[in-house]
Specification:
Helices cover 44% and strands 11% of the residues. The protein is α+β, with helices and mostly antiparallel strands. A 5-stranded antiparallel beta sheet has the order 1-2-3-4-5. A hairpin with a 2-residue loop joins strand 1 (24-25) and strand 2. Helix 3 (60-68) packs across helix 4 (72-82). It is elongated and about 70 Å long.
């Protein structure tokens, strides 16, 4: 599964806004969620944004979900592809019990 924390660390709200062509001034920008002529969205260096007109905020993933009309998982894939993060989406694999037991047995024998 794509690591949410890695994506949040590598793609900032500012990165996404710049990708969308939004003009940024002093951590403020026009909100992408409504018609906005005066910057009403602000964001910080902790990766959070808030629009004072919409009353909506969140992290970069939530912003992508709202702007691109994607679900959470689709947003992770969008950010991974758009910003060339090259993260893999391999599902967690449960260890094979037989190999695990053999490894325990080998380690136990080594301790004798």
């Amino acid at each position: 599964m794509l690591e949410v924390s890695v994506i949040r660390d590598r793609v900032s709200v500012q990165d996404y806004l710049e990708h969308k062509g939004v003009l940024i001034k002093k951590r403020t920008a026009c909100c992408l969620l409504h018609h906005d002529k005066t910057p009403s969205m602000s964001f910080n260096d902790k990766g959070l944004w808030y629009c004072f007109v919409c009353g909506v905020g969140g992290d970069v993933i939530k912003l992508v979900m709202l702007v691109e009309n994607l679900n959470f998982r689709e947003s992770l894939h969008y950010l991974n592809a758009t910003f060339s993060l090259n993260l893999t989406d391999e599902p967690y694999k449960k260890p094979d019990n037989q190999n695990y037991l053999e490894a325990l047995d080998t380690n136990y024998k080594a301790l004798k």
